[in-house]
Design a protein that fits this description.
Glutaredoxin, globular, single chain, two-stranded antiparallel sheet, 159 residues, alpha+beta
């Protein structure tokens, strides 16, 4: 079942990419007590993710903060090392990278996709959400191949 507005996020392990290396975090702990703009990409270093999705959130981090967002985070079914390298290569210091290496988070929120036609296997769909103290306040899930409703610009218009 796909997560909906008003639902509490499931508690699963994610791995935060940090300068000191991977750091395991529980989603319940990570999202507790703050308002997070979370976006999901099918994969680091992929074309739309690198050219539009990540840069949009980097460019709009201050505007999101001005609208009450405490942190901007990105998740993908990639490992923490790949997400850390992607963050570095895109000057994305304002975005926290949360690796979902096994796809447990994507599966738990019901937002997986089959990328095996592109040699990518099971991945997370492209989406964005505003999570307030662990509860989904906004959810924007893209249609396959689209990029519009999960963008930072779209989220800013909703806040």
């Amino acid at each position: 079942m796909t997560i909906s507005v008003g639902d509490k996020l499931p508690d699963v392990k994610l791995v935060k990419a940090t300068d000191a290396g991977p750091e395991a975090v529980q989603s319940a702990d990570y999202f507790a007590g703050r308002k997070v703009a979370l976006f999901s990409v099918p994969g680091a270093f992929t074309p739309t993710c690198s050219a539009k999705h990540l840069p949009g959130f980097v460019d709009n981090a201050d505007a999101l903060a001005a609208k009450g967002i405490d942190e901007v985070a990105c998740t993908a079914v990639n490992d923490a090392f790949v997400l850390g390298a992607w963050k570095s290569s895109n000057d994305a210091g304002s975005v926290t990278m949360l690796a979902d290496g096994n796809g447990d988070f994507a599966e738990a929120v019901g937002l997986t996709m089959d990328g095996s036609g592109f040699g990518m296997g099971k991945r997370g769909q492209r989406f964005s959400m505003v999570v307030n103290d662990g509860v989904v306040e906004q959810l924007n899930v893209e249609a396959p191949g689209d990029f519009s409703v999960s963008s930072a610009d779209h989220m800013l218009g909703q806040l």
